[in-house]
Amino acid sequence: MINNRIRISLLSIGILMAMSACSEVEERSSIPDSQVYIKTFGNDYVTLRIAGNSVSYISTPTSVYPTNFKLGYGGVLIYRDMDEKIHACDLACPVEASRSILVNVKMPFATCPSCGSKFDLTFGFAAPCEGPAKETLKQYNAIDNGSAIIASY
Fold it and tell me: What is residue 9's DSSP assignment?
């Protein structure tokens, strides 16, 4: 009788652990959710076809983008990593969480000019590798459909 109760308890614990291990964990970001829609055009698409290249889309008083473009919280970086996969992330540093403090990109790194956090873009993770940052740059969806690269969120 006691052995059955122990077995049932252990089985229940095992099932709960398996269920929690299989559940998708949503990563929280210091950067607020913001709309993103960018469809590359012309030279930007050509540039982004090559591993290790990037293009930044930032809203400035002089920037001119199609009216349907949505540039995230601080701007959007689209880049092709060293495995030739396309990625998109926000340019706002997650430590500063400000629209006005954007990382400077010199592939394969992005560095915050304020806190000094450095993010490794080599394989698309945008993970912190130096400085106080504990989270990645906010990630967005990016696909290369063969004629354009589309970033969205």
Answer: H
Cut 0.70: pTM above it: yes
Q: Are 45 and 148 in contact (CB under 8 A)?
A: yes
The tens place of each residue's pLDDT in the chain, 153 residues long, gives: 555 554 444 444 444 444 443 333 346 799 999 999 999 989 999 999 999 999 999 999 999 999 999 999 999 999 999 999 999 999 999 999 999 999 999 999 999 999 999 999 999 999 999 999 999 999 999 999 999 999 999
* Cβ atoms 150, 142 nearer than 8 A: yes
Per the structure block, which two tokens stand in for 11? Answer: 């089985």
| Alpha-carbon gap, residue 66 to 52, rounded angstroms | 26
